[in-house]
Amino acid sequence: MNERERIEEVLLREVEPGVTTLGELATMLDCGSWLRDDDVIVVGALGGKIPVQWTAGDTVIALRLPDDGLAYLRIRGKLSMEAVAETLRGGGDDDSRGRVIEERAVVGGGTR
Q: What dihedral angle (degrees, nearest 10) is formed by the CA atoms of 40, 66, 98, 49?
């Protein structure tokens, strides 16, 4: 299993939507070893379909995974790209770490 497949497995099997927090996901994924700033993209406007619901009150991110994988997360409440990236790397403040992941989806790899 390569790194992208391991990450997809965690997202699809271990992240429980509506329960798992961003801080918990950071621990599960060990993102510090691979996550770069430009791997986190906040979806601010819709130009096409995405596999998670976009709401004005939440943060939707596209997360680039190793080996050309892509995941989407809808996180409860508004966060900046910098706050999401810092939290996924194991940092972030208590507010960011405690934000709940409402939805997750993987594109071009595993199944939803």
A: 60
- DSSP-derived secondary structure for 51-76: SS---TTSEEEEEEEGGGEEEEEEES
Q: Among candidates 102, 106, 112, which has minimal Cα distance to 17?
A: 102
pLDDT value for 61: 95
Considering the entire predicted model, what is its pTM? Answer: 0.90
The helix (H) or strand (E) run that includes residue 27 is helix 22-29
- Bridge partners (DSSP) of residue 10 are none
The alpha carbon of residue 9 and the mean position of all alpha carbons in its chain are separated, in whole angstroms, by 13
Q: What is the CA radius of gyration of the chain?
A: 13
| Sign of CA pseudo-dihedral 6, 84, 72, 70 | negative
pLDDT tens profile 57-82? 999 999 999 888 899 999 999 999 99
